[in-house]
Amino acid sequence: AGEILTRYPDKKVVITDRTEELCAQFFRPKTRTYAKKWLEERGAEVVLGDPIDGKFPDLKIDEKGCTLRSGRRLTGDIVYKCMGFRPCTEWVKDSLPPGCMDKGGYLKVNDHLQLDVCGKTVFAMGDCMIHSSNEVKLGHTAEVNAHLVAENVRRMAKRKPLLPYPKGVVGASKTPRIYALSLGKYDGSLGFNSLVVNGSMAAFFKWMVEWTKILACREVLVGIAFWQFSDITANFLGRTLVRTTSVDDDKDE
Question: Where is the signal peptide (predicted)?
């Protein structure tokens, strides 16, 4: 929405969220307040606390709009469905033994991110799995998942004890909640546990994250070094100055 309002300021944008606050599950209060104000100042209509009518997967939403539980109809030239009720795991369902998935379609893993019922030789990570930590599904947590799985595969090959998640990677019982929300090209909101930074600095950080991540994927040394340093720093800060244990508290610093 931020990119549309920045590039096409005359476009009418409507955002609806079933909760009373914008993206309450993912973002800190300062981020939610800042983003809502930013959107509304640019003419967006933010409709909160009025879910789309129906029950998943039979929601009253189509390519021209949606009907809310209140009976209100929202229409538009384009409808973006930014929601995720079930992981895309149906394709692997027939390849796994019974008991691998819960009722929501998530793959059930142990503390080493293994599927116990598969003889502990199959790992699952990211949005498709469910772990006892019940952490929020974010890009950063998916990467932490991947780090642990890669290390545990190496340890399994060397017959070493496997590391538990997430302490085996981040050194704490919870993964730091890190996010960078874009609001157009030059604005945004950056969150690290209870610490929130709004404005152009957040936008610059988001750009730097994307740029260095691409370099790392291309195996360019500066990108690899940046992300190795960033991971170490994030885990250290999460254990000391901006403790990860505060992530469930609804208070900002």
Answer: none
Q: Residue 75: phi, psi to the nearest 5?
A: -125, 160
Q: Which is it for strands 58-59 and 61-62: parallel, antiparallel or unpaired?
A: unpaired
Q: Which contiguous run of DSSP H or E holds residue 197?
A: strand 195-198
Cα-based angle 26, 197, 144 (whole degrees, multiple of 5): 50
Domain span at 24: 2-75
pLDDT top residue among 207 and 88: 207
User: Which residue reads 């604005």 in tokens?
Assistant: 187
Please state, rounded to an integer, the average pLDDT across all residues of the chain.
91
Q: How far apart are the first and last CA of the chain?
A: 27
- Residue 136's pLDDT band, with cuts at 50, 70 and 90, is confident
Identify the residue with better confidence: 180 or 56: 180
Q: Which amino acid is at 65?
A: G
| CA–CA–CA angle 146, 151, 156 (5° rounding) | 125
Q: What is the mean pLDDT of residues 194-215?
A: 96
Total number of domains in the chain: 3
Distance of CA 167 to the CA centre of its chain: 19
Mention every residue, 6+ apart, whose C-beta is less than 8 A from residue 246.
Answer: 193, 194
Sequential DSSP letters for 11-70? S--EEEESSSSTTTTTS-HHHHHHHHHHHHHTT-EEEES-PBSEETTEESEETTEEEBTT
Determine if residue 129 is left, alpha or beta; phi over 0 gives left, psi from -120 to 50 gives alpha, anything else beta. Answer: beta
Rounded distance between C-alpha atoms, residue 162 and residue 152, angstroms? 5
Both 165 and 97 in one domain: the answer is yes
Claim to verify: residue 184 and residue 238 sit in the same structural domain: yes
